[in-house]
Target: ATP-binding cassette domain-containing protein
Amino acid sequence: MSQLVSIPAPTAVPARRGVISKVLHDPLGVISLVVLVLILLATVLAAVLAPQDPARSSLDDIFAPISAAHPLGGDSAGRDLLSRLLYGAQVSLLGATIALLTSLVIGLPAGLIAGYYGRTFDSVSSWTSNLLQALPAIIVLLALRTVFGPSIWTSMVIFGVILSPGAFRLVRATVSGVRNELYIDAALVSGLSDTRIIARHMLRVVRGPLIMHSAMVLAICINIQAGLEFLGFGDPQTASWGSMLNEGFLNIFQAPQMLFWPGLALFLTSAALALVASSLRDALQAGAVKPVRRRGSVKVAPAGDGAAPSDALLSVRDLRVAYSGGSVEVVHGVSLDVAHGEVVGLVGESGSGKTQVALSVLGLLPTGGEVTSGAVALAGERLLGRSASFLRTVRGRRIGYIPQEPLSNLDPSFRIGNQLSEVVRVHLGLSRAAARDRVLDLLARVGIPDPARTYRAFPHEISGGMAQRVLIAGAVSCDPELLIADEPTTALDVTVQADILDLLRDLQQEKGLGVLFVTHDFGVVADICDRVLVMRQGEIVENGPAQAIFDTPRHDYTRSLLGSMLDGRPARLARVKVTGDGRA
Ligand SMILES: Nc1ncnc2c1ncn2[C@@H]1O[C@H](COP(=O)(O)OP(=O)(O)OP(=O)(O)O)[C@@H](O)[C@H]1O
Model:
């Protein structure tokens, strides 16, 4: 195993405090949480705390004053107010929870699917959500009450349905906001399924906003439920805060306490929920990380025609890629081979089509892009036109991918170790412990000085160079046959670039990897590539061994690229000798 040198230390970043910990550092958050916990405890322990049966009435206790027997007094039927308040809390909180859960059961999955996949489901569900929001909630509740009877539980389920567009829109907006982040691409490129990406990455992103939303919705539901009971739409025999308000209102002059206590309970619960929501919002905003987006969302490349040719590891034949329904062609019939253990550089200026070729191989062209013709094969096996599930077994497992912007390709809300071991577990079927050991070994192998610490770290706690080492570890974690590196050093500073190239060369030789190295930099080509393809305006204009291209470039464009390389910094002469006159 090669020794690696000059490893940059991880950038010192203060440890990240969890959202709960931030809420616990906010005095208002703590007070409101304590109030909520007390209310919840009192509700759950109503049978223990209530002095008597909430329905038991006594003529002697009508409008009873506050006393040891009736700590909050008695009502117009001689029932104990404290007992009714405690038991009433069960009805009010349960009713509100039913409405909230109903809205989440509908809104969460619909929002996840609409935000992630978009298209027809998004259009239909957005239209349905707009329709539901346009309905006057109270009128609908009154109309359906005549159908289903005066059950408060049914009313709260219906109210939950009416509230579901709120959850739907929040989840949909949050998911579509992160759907185009690079780390979601990275998860796709690693071969993770859509279901897994939704369940792990998307759910984690919507979790915070949804908890905040739920606290607000719970407060609204408690008040709406009380309002319905107040208007007499509940069961009059059951104690609830709303029915107590109703009775209190009728007796406001004889016994104002009948109105005061349920009113206070409602106020305290709603205020505590609103303050918890606000504290959560502050905590979430403080922890927000702004990742970088890529240019468009990906879609699996459609079928190309043609047979899989040659016995090369990677074989691309007459590849054509177009946008705008095929009218704008950006790759014009590219053919290339990468042999087992060979490093092929795909070089060209920005916009020449290098990335389109790489993404076509992975079956991950941006939305609007399609392979209009050509063939791509890995070890003789056709890739273009294969099913999404087949491509998932290839990406990450047989083809490793190293992206350009390391930090943006790591999910900011997951620890680095979890992100790497997830891919290893999916592809190699390892246990949690075995995956962890493998990832720790890999982190050590790519030159990370304290693998255990990096395993536990979040992406913002490490430097760009470290993040690129982490992504290289991820790319080789399942022992792929082919590595596609898309400008893996462009976003790094020059000293780190050299270290990363050394690492890639060591790994390539150690594992006998075939590598397609996309770059605009002939210096990098000189460092690492055996063979070079020069690309210009969607076509390969020159193709040959790296040494030959440097010694005797045939195409003017290659000569101008080589010239500009030497204007900048000299090539590191790992594989290619550059002559002293400025020509390669
Ligand atoms: N999502 C897209 N929609 C339309 N055109 C696109 C899209 N992505 C890329 N292109 C076009 O495809 C062409 C090739 O782009 P590509 O990203 O492959 O270039 P590149 O050589 O990799 O450049 P760079 O090094 O800047 O990434 C460009 O003309 C670009 O405008």
User: Anything to note?
Assistant: The chain has a mean pLDDT of 82. The longest helix spans residues 81-117.
